[in-house]
Write a structure and sequence with these properties.
The complex is a heterodimer of chains A (549) and B (160). Chain A has 549 residues and is of the alpha+beta class. Chain A contains 16 helices and 23 strands. In chain B, strand 2 and strand 3 form a beta hairpin. The chains are: A alpha+beta (549), B alpha+beta (160).
Chain lengths: 549, 160
């Protein structure tokens, strides 16, 4: 365990750690471009130079192993001079087109220029010009002029995505980052290269020119497009989601996530959202209606149906909504006909899965369904009974909160014709689809970024989502729905704050015992018997040879 | 303060007051040119060089907008009255340009911070025009077409 001194402060680190790691442990900020904690070390940007006593030249702190008795200085004039000069070199051919660069505002090059240099260029010759709009593939555009050749993107693709399509070619100031001719960068993890890029060279086509980053507000959340549940920040402004980026959590996804999770958010802004309550009239056409009227109709149908009323929940719902759903049917309606379909969405064939972050199971809360619904219905045969009753035309009321129901079930045709025989089919949905067209009543529901609650990851980790903005139009949160219906039925209702529901759930269901919102926090917490399952998230000792740079 | 008898009668005071009016009338009759009023709108007063009038978007020689849609004006704007949507230009054109640039003149406070913030001298307030009245809210939202049409500017201001 070497013990060293950095800027007069002593620190002990494990053997094999670098001077940069030791400085980080002390909270000393050493500027860097090519170093990334989760990637292999390249040492090519020269920004992290430090002064080590008894060594005549400055050394790059990211490649120098900490040794016993080292005395390191990070703020001497010699170091400051080196940082200024390195920045001047990096900026010799940088176009400085910050006004049209998407990275401006969150750009390490911009920030470090203001921090360490702030000097005008001394160059008198023309800058080297390179292609500025290179189409790298379906998701990414490359500006070769802005690139500082740190090779973070190259290393990410080689070390995590097993993709060797990016590389640097040519020499000197003509070096460019490029793909093989005619071979686009088409990788499901490609947008991580945009995150690791310390300048605006790699830009996401989806986000390009949509918004300046300083307008965006970040709300922590989790990705709900597969069972991995990557931690994310929803970046939004005025009720419009602009991009999804990973939020670092070493127990789940590290700083990475897949492109599918980043790009699926568009439905939140979509025009296909169910904007208001719809009621099917005598002429079989759906027309707009208000919540009060719709709730009255639902209450009438439920009173008529009594304990024959049935409900189908979704593994996309939060733990809180699932609990309220179960309680509503069991306690309020005294019905045993409620279930959730946990099959996967869409056809199995062609579905992606790998040993990094993408799982074949596309349900974010399957574990939650499996832990919560048996608390109310230990037998768990309700789904088959609902289908049989519907087929026999003996189902007076069915509430479906799973907009993907028809693509989940295997015997699609059978369900389709069975649902047509239900006397009152109520569908809660975010998007208009085949199922909402069949419904007698359609309820607009909030999307996951407009809700608050928790999800249970497949390995038992309970993770929170926060509300980014109020639900669009007349949409309501799923959790509030049961209370509204109970009130319309004339029952005494309780407050439905997600936190209160979770506290009750935690006291009733053993798996969630001892958990609470403060305990879950931003990083999540394991339920009883859960065991963290994570892929390799950083390139450490034991990995293959570092990438060539 | 109580008034004395002379003041209570008012007549003397009224005559004293009228004398000022009559004196000005006679002076202006003798010297019409020195009159401070002007016959608007036949005669217009010249606006001061630094007067912040209605905005204009400047153009390059090929007629394209100088604006690169960097949104620094919208960022600096204290009234949040500037709305910009950026588009990517085709090859050979500007990489980024505004496909929509709206200023809501009802919200604008004519502070000129947008002009100060612009790194490209793309927006100026030197038209000398006071924005004309309109009869609907929509007409107060000036689009690119409105912001690029303005009368000839006799005394253009230096770029900031």
């Amino acid at each position: 365990m070497p013990k060293l001194t950095i800027d007069g402060k002593e620190v002990t680190v494990e053997k094999g750690q670098t001077v940069m790691n030791a400085a980080e442990k002390l909270g000393i900020d050493i500027p860097r471009f090519c170093y990334h904690p989760n990637l292999s070390v390249a040492g090519n940007c020269r920004m992290c130079l430090v002064d080590i006593e008894k060594i005549p030249k400055l050394l790059t702190s990211c490649t120098t192993e900490a040794a016993e008795g080292m005395v390191v200085h990070t703020t001497t004039d010699k170091v400051k001079d080196a940082q200024r000069v390195v920045l001047e070199f990096l900026l010799v051919n940088h176009p400085i087109d910050c006004p049209i660069c998407d990275k401006a505002g969150e750009c390490p090059l911009q920030d470090q220029y203001y921090k360490f240099s702030s000097e005008p260029s001394r160059m008198e010759v023309e800058k080297t010009h390179k292609p500025k709009r290179v189409d790298l593939g379906p998701t990414i555009k490359l500006d070769q002029e802005r690139c500082v050749l740190c090779t973070r993107c190259v290393r990410f693709l080689e070390e995590f995505a097993d993709d060797h399509s990016l590389g640097t070619v040519n020499r000197g100031d003509r070096t460019i980052l490029t793909t093989f001719p005619g071979q686009p960068l088409d990788n499901v993890y490609s947008l991580n290269t945009v995150d690791v890029c310390p300048v605006g060279a790699l830009t996401s086509k989806d986000f390009r020119f949509k918004k300046r980053v300083w307008f965006l507000k970040k709300t922590p959340s989790i990705c709900t497009f597969c069972a991995t549940g990557c931690n994310i920040n929803v970046e939004h402004d005025e009720g419009h989601v602009y991009r999804i980026r990973p939020r670092e959590n070493d127990g789940v996804n590290g700083p990475w996530m897949c492109d599918t999770g980043r790009l699926e958010y568009t439905f939140v802004n979509s025009e296909d959202r169910v904007k208001c309550c719809l009621v099917r009239g005598e002429d079989h056409r759906q027309s707009r209606s208000g919540w009060d009227e719709v709730l009255k109709r639902i209450a009438e149908a439920i009173l008529h149906a009594g304990n024959r009323a049935a409900g189908i929940a979704s593994p996309r719902m939060t733990n809180e909504s699932l609990y309220e759903f179960g309680r509503f049917f069991q306690m309020t309606l005294k019905s045993q006909r409620f279930a959730a379909v946990t099959s996967d969405i869409g056809p199995i064939e062609g579905r992606r899965a790998d040993d990094f972050l993408i799982r074949a199971d596309k349900n974010p809360n399957r574990r939650g369904v499996e832990e919560i619904l048996p608390h109310f219905d230990p037998q768990g045969e309700a789904l088959q009974k609902i289908l049989e009753a519907a087929e026999a035309g003996k189902l007076p009321f069915l509430l479906i909160l799973d907009q993907d129901l028809l693509s989940r079930v295997e015997d699609h045709q059978r369900w389709h014709s069975a649902l047509e025989k239900v006397s009152c089919l109520v569908v809660g949905s975010t998007l208009e689809n085949e199922l909402t067209k069949m419904a007698h009543i359609v309820l607009p529901l909030a999307s996951w970024v407009e809700e608050e609650g928790t999800y249970t990851r497949f390995d038992g980790r309970v993770q929170r989502v926060w509300r980014a903005f109020p639900a669009r139009g007349e949409a309501r949160e799923t959790l509030a729905l049961f209370n509204c219906v109970a009130a319309a039925l004339g029952k005494k209702t309780q407050a439905v704050r997600p936190q209160a529901v979770f506290d009750e759930l935690a006291s009733r269901i053993r798996f969630y015992g001892g958990l609470s919102y403060p305990a879950i926090g931003k990083d999540g917490a394991l339920g009883a018997g859960g065991e963290t399952v994570v892929p390799r998230l950083s390139y450490g000792p034991g990995s293959e040879q570092p990438a060539a740079t | 303060m109580s008034m004395d008898f002379k003041e209570q009668v008012y007549v003397v005071e009224i005559v004293k007051g009228l004398m000022i009016t009559i004196r000005n009338l006679l002076r202006n009759m003798m010297n019409m040119r020195g009159m401070p009023t002007i016959s608007y709108p036949e005669i217009m007063k010249a606006v001061a060089h630094r007067y912040r009038g209605r905005h204009r978007l400047t153009q390059k020689e090929d007629g394209m907008l100088k604006c690169t849609a960097c949104m620094l004006c919208a960022t600096a704007c204290p009234a949040k009255c500037i709305q910009i949507e950026a588009k990517e230009g085709a090859d050979g054109e500007a990489e980024k340009y505004p496909s929509l640039y709206n200023i809501d003149m009802l919200e604008c406070v004519y502070c000129g911070l947008c002009v100060e913030a612009c790194p490209c001298d793309a927006i100026r307030m030197d038209t000398g025009i006071h924005p004309p009245p309109a009869d609907s809210r929509e007409k107060f939202i000036y689009r690119i077409e409105d912001l690029t049409t303005y009368p000839e500017i006799k005394n253009p201001r230096d770029p900031v």
